[in-house]
Amino acid sequence: MQDQLVESDQAKEPPPDQATVRRAVVASAMGNCIEWFDFGVFSAGVMTMIIGTVFFPEDSSGSATLKSFALIAAAFIARPFGGLFFGPLGDKLGRQRVLATTIILMSASTFVIGVLPGYASIGIAAPLLLLLVRLVQGFSTGGEYGGAATFIAEYAPTGKRGFFGSFLEFGTLSGYILGSGLVLVVNLLLGQTAMHAWGWRIPFLLALPLGLVGLYVRTKLEDTPAFQEMAKAGKAARSPLKETIVHNWRMILNLIGIVFLLNVADYTLLTFMPSYLTENLGIGAVTSQLITIGIELLMLLVIAPLGALSDRVGRKPLLVAAALGYVFLSLPSIKLMQIHNAMAVTAGFAIMGALLVLMLAVIGSTFPAMFPTQVRYGAFAIGYNISTSLFGGTSALLIGSLIKVFHTNYIPAFYLMAAGAIALVPILLIPETAGVSIRKIGTKGSRRLASATD
To answer: What is the value of pTM for the model shown?
Structure first.
């Protein structure tokens, strides 16, 4: 059936320039690195407490950590709008131009947080300004991930799309490790008093130099071969947004279902867990950060080999294994953490990290190949950001609130189990795209791909 849908990769696709492919991978991964650098800084155990106390009055309701999680969730309100704006724009004007805009907006927004005055200085204006900055960042991030994944996928040779696509999430993990690691180092060097007074600003300020480096790399690249080929042939969609919704809505729904699990797992593990280990399980802040960073370093080591494995065995086996793993292993993982022993906590966290990295290794190559070149950026950005807004940014806030309501620390496991069961359906419905040339997926083929899920 796959042979009937699209042409095989053995057709006339010229071999790509490997040096250019590598530059495209670096340029794309840099944006993801900056996005998750922000999350790494914002969600570090000590930082969530500081943000909540610096920008809110002391007598306001709710814990400082939940206030910070609410700000994280608020940024996701703007992400679908960013996807709706930047996605179709990237299909019309090109991937490179839009990605140059999103990376500087993201890094500048993170930088601005580092210079905002706190509640003690300007009162209620402090949290309102912080909320505004987070909304701008969410808007720009809504156009970043889909474009970055598309950029890599359209540059990578078909037989290595899984390998090169995995480096997008290598950027995710690197950014998170860099952000949370920087918070840890600054906190250890300055001590709690200086960290609360002014030291917390340092990690946010460093986002701007990172963004400028990423901008430089992106502006030195031409647009993707697939987009240039489409533009020269005059096959660009006249109305990308309309084409996206009318002809690709079924595949967008499949994407939303898979991203549901991806984001619940991603944001639970990387955003919520550091505070969960500290506040709910009584693990020291430094110890919890060391465990988190250690597991993420191990994930970095295996993500590219897993991406290469998907080029040989397919993307779906890894996605199915991750979904089933979360259904059956989430509860044992959380139970291990309840032992309150550093080794047991690390083992439970490692199981969850292993399941997450199975997904991270293949999404950069799977999601772009679900849509045709004419609407790839927009369809990806819209579906991904709707799901992320609903289920990703709210994960930490929702899980933290449910723990307080039901007085059980097993809420993360139950949420992950439900997400795994739901995502298994669309994973089984989507076609296998390993070994299929992304340039050969046209509008007609995309409609057949979509109808194959009926």
So the answer is: 0.83
